[in-house]
TrEMBL record:
Assigned keywords, A-Z: Metal-binding, Transferase, Ubl conjugation pathway, Zinc, Zinc-finger
Domain SIAH-type: 109-169
GO molecular function, one term: zinc ion binding
Organism this protein belongs to: Nyssa sinensis
Name of the protein in question: RING-type E3 ubiquitin transferase
Lineage of the species this protein comes from: Eukaryota, Viridiplantae, Streptophyta, Embryophyta, Tracheophyta
Source organism, top-level taxon: Eukaryota
Length: 318
């Protein structure tokens, strides 16, 4: 979809509409290298040398049973054993089916910190359960939430906010209410493409507002939804509403923002947001129904626990 044909007009907290012109962005190339060094908390003896023994010489990942070895004692993981055609990658001797039981026993005795210790995770795990934890660790880096390209950048929330602003040129706004007008000169051309991403800062948190067009089966639709820049537990502390309408009709949506741990596509394909059929969108646009003119308004609020009633009450952002 040609982003140059799209106009987005934004106003917040009673401010006048301000035109926002989307751009065709030339994204920088990013590269990241895995860090194999373990950060050992104070009071724990370094285990780097043992960790190096447990590192596969082929893929450099940590080895888990079965750990294989050749007749000369060189080890490698079971996945790489099939990739090297049964030849030791170190000495080129035939591998056979020898298990390195001693190294497997050593691994069982190890307790190591989560690899995201430097990002704040304080947990210590036995070697064989460490990997499972790291796959779901709340301190693991977040993926870039920008959906308009295959962006592989990861990092913490402050880093991603700067990345979205500086590299994706995403519009940033402060406040808990929003008022967007989306204009498209040819709404008949509906493709699987993201139209707009806007980041809002309120309650000391960041939220991503998505608006896009895509095919739902054979029907073209427009969809708006909100994602929370943080983990799933914290996302449940907030709610949001969206509204679109004209000519005496309106559609409304109220829900909980999804965490950016859930991919953009996962949220979109679950239909967890405000969905507008094209015919209804054109009806809202008025005129000759040949141009899309949608105004989407909304707000974000934080749910607070009422200690007396034991129920959640909305805390409206001032």
């Amino acid at each position: 979809m040609d982003l140059d044909n799209i106009e987005c007009v934004f106003s917040s907290d009673g401010m006048e509409d301000e035109e926002i012109h989307p751009h065709n962005h030339h994204l920088h190339q990013f590269s990241s290298k895995p860090h194999n060094n373990i950060v050992i908390p104070s009071g724990i003896a370094p285990a780097t040398s043992v960790h190096e023994l447990l590192e596969c010489p082929v893929c450099t990942n940590s080895m888990y049973p079965p750990i294989h070895q050749c007749h000369n004692g060189h080890t490698l993981c079971s996945t790489c054993k099939t990739r090297v055609h049964n030849r030791c990658p170190t000495c080129r001797q035939e591998l056979g089916d020898i298990r390195c039981l001693a190294l497997e026993k050593v691994a069982e005795s190890l307790e190591l910190p989560c690899k995201y210790y430097s990002l704040g995770c304080p947990e210590i795990f036995p070697y064989y359960s460490k990997l499972k934890h790291e796959a779901v660790c709340n301190f693991r880096p977040y993926n870039c939430p920008y959906a308009g390209s295959e962006c592989s950048v990861t990092g913490d929330i402050p880093f991603l906010v700067s990345h979205l602003r500086d590299d994706h040129k995403v519009d940033m706004h402060t406040g808990c209410t929003f008022n967007h007008r989306y204009v498209k000169s040819n709404p008949r051309e509906v493709e699987n493409a993201t139209w707009m991403l806007t980041v809002f800062h309120c309650y000391g948190q960041y939220f991503c507002l998505h608006f896009e067009a895509f095919q739902l089966g054979v029907a073209p639709v427009y969809m708006a939804f909100l994602r929370f820049m943080g983990n799933e537990t914290d996302a449940r502390n907030y709610s949001y509403s969206l509204e679109v309408g004209a000519n005496g009709r309106k559609l409304t949506w109220e829900g909980t923002p999804r965490s950016i741990r859930d991919s953009h596509r996962k949220v979109r394909d679950s239909h967890d947001g405000l969905i507008i059929q094209r015919n209804m969108a054109l009806f809202f646009s008025g005129g000759d129904r040949k141009e899309l003119k949608l105004r989407v308004t909304g707000r974000i609020w934080k749910e607070q626990q009422n200690p007396d009633a034991g129920v959640c009450i909305p805390n409206v952002c001032s």
